[in-house]
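Final report, section 2: Outcomes. Of the targets proposed, DUF3221 domain-containing protein is the one most frequently requested by collaborating groups, and we therefore present its record in full.
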Amino acid sequence: MNFLSNLSLLFFLLIVGCGDDNVYDADFQGTILEVKEDSILVSEDDINPESTYPVYEIMINKSTKFSGEVERYKDLDNFISQIEQPVVHLWVIDKGENNEIDNRIAREVIVEKE
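The predicted structure is given below as tokens.
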């Protein structure tokens, strides 16, 4: 019986480990500054008014998956107009050299309230 318990536990851990991407493993975590026709502008979410932060343009295509508070790209602009500093976790298809995300296509975008 102990063997079956261990086998069940192993099976459960495999299923849990194969779930959706962990937001803490995202290629970028920050805030959405602007929604454009086929891209979003994002930056750091811990903004110090005395510092400057890079702004990244993330391209969106028909295969980009949205989840969290917004499940469709066309609803994103309305959502960020209602929420102050929405949080975004995103994964890009190809980070390029040095893990660059600017002007890359998003594979998955998770949008949350602050």
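The longest strand covers residues 104-112.
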